[in-house]
Every structure is written in structure tokens, then in C-alpha cells.
Specification:
By secondary structure, the chain is an alpha+beta fold. The chain contains four helices and twelve strands; from the N terminus they run E-H-E-E-E-H-E-E-E-H-E-E-H-E-E-E. It is globular and about 45 Å long. Bound molecules: adenosine monophosphate. The site of adenosine monophosphate has 9 residues, from strand 5 and strand 7.
Length: 179
């Protein structure tokens, strides 16, 4: 890590609209200011919505690591401005949203302030955060435990699936369909 920069782990989710496009644009928006540099981006995973109203579309989730000179509070503001840019819908708690960006960790910083709790208070039980994070940082730990071990124990682990991309466009499978 470069001096003056702190590594942060960000989790992104979307379950409304053009979910994959939103995630791609959000990654670019998050690292657009010079104060935030991209370190790594996880694959996209597809997950059932946890809690909230029934019948919601599946989420696409991913994790990215950045290094930043922004303070934790300024990084939260920045993440929220990117959420707002994507017209996040927040009428229902845990309801569908165009874009959700959470700060999972900010260096070793800890905080129990409800405005910004770090590490993120629910990350240790969310496979949709832990599993993609483990793919880019296999040795990372949270609360003293390997994140891959936490992921395997998380209640939503069995609901994770690789994002199937655009292989089934208009019902026509493209993979292996060449005759
Ligand atoms: P949510 O609707 O679940 O995205 O929660 C958003 C609220 O959580 C915001 O008001 C934030 O101030 C607060 N919050 C607390 N800790 C965090 C965190 N680590 N990352 C993002 N938002 C947080």
C-alpha cells in the first residue's frame, strides 16, 4: 500500500434494473476520484434477497478493494453519492435497490457509530460479501477468522450461484450452441 493510503473493502449489490451494468458503472464511479484507487474486483455472484419483501429479484453482489486517502466518513459520503447517482430506491428497508454500497472494512479502523459501523456489523454472516471477498483476498480475516470459513458457515452460502452472465439471451443458449 502507498503511504497515506488506507485499504478499504467495499461490497456492492444490485437487484433492480440493469443490475450488471449498474455494478460496472459503480466500480468506475467509486474509483473515479484521485483519492480512491482500485486494487481488486471480485467476480459477480448471484444471490437470493435476504429478508425484506418476498418475490424480489435476485441480487448481483460483488466486492472490491481500494486504497484511499479519504477519511472513513468521507469514503461513506462518496459511496452514498455513487448510490444516489444510480437512483437508489430506498422506500422499503431491505427492499429492492438499484445499488447498495457498504464499507466492510477500512484498514484496522473500528467504530460502533451507527452512522458508520466498522467493520460492517453484518458482514461476518453474509456469504454474499464473504465469498466474493475471499476470491480476491483468500488470506483475509474478519473478527479473527478466515473469511472463507465464515462464508462456508453463513446461512445464505447455499443460495450463492455464479452470475450466469448473458449466456441465455432471449432464451437462446449461446454457450455450446454453435452448429
Ligand atoms: P443500508 O440501507 O443497509 O445500506 O444502510 C445504510 C445506512 O447504514 C446508512 O445510513 C449508513 O450511515 C449506515 N451504515 C453504518 N455502517 C455502515 C457501513 N459500514 N457501510 C455503509 N453504511 C453504513
Amino acid at each position: 500500500m502507498t503511504t497515506g493510503y488506507t485499504k478499504a473493502v467495499l461490497a456492492l449489490g444490485s437487484n433492480l434494473g440493469e443490475r450488471n451494468d449498474t455494478l460496472s458503472e459503480a466500480v468506475a464511479d467509486l474509483v473515479d476520484p484521485p483519492e480512491v484507487r482500485l486494487l481488486a474486483v471480485s467476480p459477480v455472484v448471484q444471490t437470493k434477497a435476504v429478508g425484506g419483501p418476498a418475490g424480489q429479484p435476485d441480487f448481483l453482489n460483488m466486492v472490491m478493494t481500494v486504497e484511499t486517502t479519504l477519511s472513513p466518513a468521507k469514503l461513506l459520503q462518496h459511496c452514498q453519492s455513487v448510490e444516489n447517482k444510480h437512483h437508489r430506491v430506498r422506500e422499503v428497508r431491505w427492499g429492492p435497490r438499484t445499488l447498495d454500497v457498504d464499507i466492510i472494512t477500512y484498514g484496522d479502523f473500528t467504530s460502533d457509530d451507527p452512522v458508520l459501523t466498522l467493520p460492517h456489523p453484518r458482514a461476518a454472516e453474509r456469504a454474499f460479501v464473504l465469498y466474493p471477498w475471499s476470491l480476491i483476498e483468500p488470506a483475509a480475516t474478519l473478527n479473527g477468522e478466515r473469511i472463507s470459513a465464515l462464508a462456508a458457515r453463513a446461512p445464505d452460502f447455499d443460495d450463492l450461484a455464479p452470475f450466469d452472465g448473458f449466456g441465455d439471451f432471449d432464451g437462446v443458449p449461446t454457450a455450446g450452441a454453435v452448429e
